[in-house]
């Protein structure tokens, strides 16, 4: 039994070392918005901010106002009220009445074969006239000067698509889940390869997907993603496959997301991922990840050398979590319990998969989608149609 315990502890130690090296590489390579100078120009390219919103009455007004006061001189905002049954539409209309830069699109129906959010993005894009398009969720706040910094940097570097990692604010009870979620995100994906045109690695961010319009025109377009649950990430993959030059940057204090107001809301939001894989595969994957994240705990009650290896792994894990949180401008204190976030995260993922299995599909943004339809619409890993055949499936 002790030999098996040591193997588990050793695997956990290797896992955390892997995360440490991956994170250090990302910290070293990824640009930070704070390091991008704010330029003064006689003319700026027109920027269209597309905001899909469904039942976002709590966040919408404050978040849109931060974008309007952000300072970008050639800005238009297209708010898409996607079949909301709260005050989202009325709030959007009041905002538009007070600022001519805002256009509101009200949707009261969803065409067959589309996910609600992707359809809202497409309808917003139809109304957008900018040289650059920023797809950004309704609960994102921008600090003054963010857009000027990022667009000037993108044009200087010849980048077509910029995805920004946001900082986040959340209730204290959600902070460990939040910190662990983004630490895993930034270490499981080789972010240093995103900017490499020869690498297949691509990325996207629902908080901040800034796209050059001409690059989007060279891709199959949003219609090709109309049933893709991971629309933000898939957008990045589609753009890079189409030849767009891509970059992942750290938003920090310049791009801020208000995380879900409660664990229950977070849990419901991730239900949309349940049909992506079988429940058995998700449960097995969570079990493996939990073993790697928390396996070092098994060595604390064992004799040497397992105990020493467990203690060293704890120090490495805590340091890695702290470094990730500091880098992403998130709460640092969850570093005292490194890896524990896999418990709520794993529960949410397993629950979503089991619910999808029992229901035969997923319920998202008020619409039910059968599992077969969701999986048929998945674009990640599929070959893209040629540029001239955007309506191919």
Automatic annotation (TrEMBL):
SUPFAM superfamilies: Nucleotide-diphospho-sugar transferases (SSF53448). Pfam families: Glycos_transf_2. Keywords: Membrane, Transmembrane, Transmembrane helix. It comes from the Bacteria. The chain crosses the membrane at residues 277-299, 336-357. Residues 48-171 form the Glycosyltransferase 2-like domain. PANTHER family: GLYCOSYLTRANSFERASE, SLR1566 PROTEIN. This is Glycosyltransferase family 2 protein. It comes from Nannocystis pusilla.
């Amino acid at each position: 039994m002790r030999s098996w315990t040591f193997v588990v502890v050793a695997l956990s130690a290797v896992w955390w070392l892997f995360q440490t090296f991956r994170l250090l590489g990302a910290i070293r390579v990824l640009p930070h918005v704070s390091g991008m100078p704010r330029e003064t120009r006689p003319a700026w390219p027109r920027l269209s901010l597309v905001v899909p919103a469904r039942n976002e009455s709590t966040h919408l007004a404050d978040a849109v106002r931060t974008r309007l006061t952000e300072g970008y001189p050639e800005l238009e905002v297209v708010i898409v009220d996607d079949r909301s049954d709260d005050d989202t539409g009325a709030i959007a209309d009041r905002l538009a009445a007070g600022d001519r830069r805002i256009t509101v699109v009200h949707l009261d129906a969803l065409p067959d074969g589309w996910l609600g959010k992707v359809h809202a993005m497409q309808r917003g894009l139809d109304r957008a006239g900018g040289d650059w398009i920023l797809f950004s969720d309704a609960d994102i706040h921008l600090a003054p000067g963010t857009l000027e910094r990022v667009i000037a940097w993108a044009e200087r570097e010849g980048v077509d698509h910029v995805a920004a990692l946001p900082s986040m604010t959340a209730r204290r009870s959600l902070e460990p889940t939040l910190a662990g979620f983004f630490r895993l995100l930034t270490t499981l994906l080789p972010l240093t390869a995103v900017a490499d045109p020869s690498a297949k690695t691509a990325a996207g961010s629902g908080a901040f997907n800034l796209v050059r319009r001409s690059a989007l025109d060279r891709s199959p377009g949003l219609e090709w993603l109309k049933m893709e649950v991971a629309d933000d990430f898939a957008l990045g993959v589609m753009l890079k496959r189409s030849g767009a030059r891509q970059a992942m940057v750290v938003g920090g204090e310049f791009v801020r997301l208000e995380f879900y107001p409660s664990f229950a809301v977070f849990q419901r939001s991730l239900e949309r991922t349940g049909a992506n894989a079988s429940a058995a595969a998700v449960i097995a994957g969570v079990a493996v990840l939990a073993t790697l994240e928390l396996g070092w705990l098994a060595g604390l009650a064992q004799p040497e050398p397992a105990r020493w290896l467990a203690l060293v792994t704890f120090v490495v894990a805590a340091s890695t979590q702290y470094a990730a949180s500091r880098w992403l401008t998130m709460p640092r204190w969850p570093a005292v319990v490194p890896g524990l976030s896999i418990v709520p995260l794993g529960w949410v993922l397993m629950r979503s998969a089991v619910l999808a299995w029992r229901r035969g599909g997923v319920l998202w943004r008020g619409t039910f989608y059968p599992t077969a339809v969701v999986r048929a619409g998945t674009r990640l890993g599929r070959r893209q149609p040629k540029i001239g055949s955007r309506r191919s499936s």
